[in-house]
Amino acid sequence: MTPVIALVGRPNVGKSTLFNQMTRSRDALVADFPGLTRDRKYGEGNYEGQRFIVIDTGGLTGDEQGLDLEMARQSMQAVEEADIVLFLVDGRAGLTAGDELIADHMRRSGKQAHLVVNKTDGQDPDIAAADFYSLGFESTFLIAASHNRGIRSMLEILLPSEEEREDQDRADRYPGIRIGVVGRPNVGKSTLVNRMLGEDRVVVFDMPGTTRDSVYVPYERQGNQYTLIDTAGVRRRKNVSEVVEKFSIIKTLQAIEDAHVVILVIDAREGLVDQDLHLIGFVLDAGRSLVIAVNKWDGMDPEDRARVKEQVKRRLDFLDYADKHYISALHGSGVGVMYESVEACYDSAMAKWPTNRLTAILQDAIAQHQPPMVQGRRIKLRYAHQGGSNPPVIVVHGNQVDSLPGSYKRYLENTFRKVLKVTGSPIRFEFRAGENPFATKVDRLTPRQKVKKDNDQKQGPSPKKKRQKSLKR
């Protein structure tokens, strides 16, 4: 579906300029006086392959009469049509009573509205936006539409990525939370699927390799939609000989990509083996939430149970954020409790956090433990925003981020995980450095500077520089 973005705000805040930048056109008239735009104007934009429609509207004041009232109706009609509303304000003029009236109407409309502070060029963007934070919008973007600054990063956040669009296509085919059940052959995956469904939906037999293809089963439980994915067992590569089994493994890896939450089934009687760790690696590389199910727990001696728990705790220490359940798929003990973990994982993986909250967490983390210095300069991390879901992606902007050590990145991950209460899902960080505006600038000398440079090269260093050089030696 093509997103529709409406631009609203007071007169002369830069809506038409932003419209032209987003559509890469000059369709909207732009002049330095208010009230030029009166009717709704539609345009089409494209960002990273994602098409979208932009609606330019006339300015709102909050107490319209006559012609202004008709313009206001046009603007409100655009708000009703839009999927995303961008409320533009003037960073130079500051917060006005009209802005407060429009913000109040945006809240009552129930639309997904974002605050856009325009005209931040030539001043500190944070200072320009300070007054507008009192309006209470969850997300705020700082741009300079006339110079095309900040618009790409805004669209990156507002528009779904290619991965999110693919995920939406899968959601249309398989509704609800998609739960992938993976593990080695004969650990009880199909038995667990049947137990969770409450019926014998897939074939169960005491022989490895019974399941050959991934089976998608949509169902409903307590009013919630789910899709269970039963997969073929994955053995070590050296033990895979049949062509059919090789295709089954590919299908299993695809099922992991399709899932929101993956349940890894481990055989308690065989313990945690290297192949289980390889499967965990596949799940984490795909960025999927993870729940550990230690199956065949029934009938084990207390000593064996204690040994398995100790082994799981020791070897899966790096997965302290993932829930671990000790179950019996055959008898159903402990299976129902896993739904709580699955739903918590799904909520964490699909969570949306406003930019101001992520930036506040980043600043608190920096205040508690500053980034290290590189070549005498402190690494600076300026702000953070969300770049995707399933898994959550947090984009941090700063300078010298390529020199940020892994230990500090892990510190940030643990801090964000703790504050945001992310359960079961990995968090991915992307660190981006701002472009140097002088990187491509050519240093041009005036004729007088060229003459001085030539003379200096002919005469050599001055007596003062010679003395300084000898003292250093």
UniProtKB/TrEMBL annotation:
Task: Summarize where GTP 2 binds, as residue positions.
Answer: 183-190, 230-234, 295-298
Q: Tell me where in this chain the EngA-type G domain is found.
A: 3-166, 177-350
In what ranges is there compositional bias, type Basic residues?
463-473
User: InterPro entries, from UniProt?
Assistant: AAA+_ATPase (IPR003593), G_ENGA (IPR031166), GTP-bd (IPR006073), GTPase_Der (IPR016484), KH_dom-like (IPR032859), KH_dom-like_a/b (IPR015946), P-loop_NTPase (IPR027417), Small_GTP-bd (IPR005225)
Q: Which GO terms describe its molecular function?
A: GTP binding; ribosome binding
Its keywords, alphabetically, are:
GTP-binding, Nucleotide-binding, Repeat, Ribosome biogenesis
Q: Please name the CDD domains in this protein's record.
A: EngA1 (cd01894), EngA2 (cd01895)
Q: Which GO terms describe its biological process?
A: ribosome biogenesis
Q: Where is this region: Disordered?
A: 439-473
Q: Which Pfam families match?
A: KH_dom-like (PF14714), MMR_HSR1 (PF01926)
Q: Where do the annotations place GTP 1 binding?
A: 9-16, 56-60, 118-121
> Biased-composition ranges for Basic and acidic residues?
441-457
Task: Report the function annotation for this chain.
Answer: GTPase that plays an essential role in the late steps of ribosome biogenesis.
This protein's assembly is summarised as:
Associates with the 50S ribosomal subunit.
Q: Which HAMAP family match?
A: GTPase_Der (MF_00195)
Among NCBIfam families, the record links this protein to: GTPase_EngA (TIGR03594), small_GTP (TIGR00231)
Task: Give the record's family classification.
Answer: Belongs to the TRAFAC class TrmE-Era-EngA-EngB-Septin-like GTPase superfamily. EngA (Der) GTPase family.
Q: What is this protein called?
A: GTPase Der
Origin species: Marinobacter subterrani
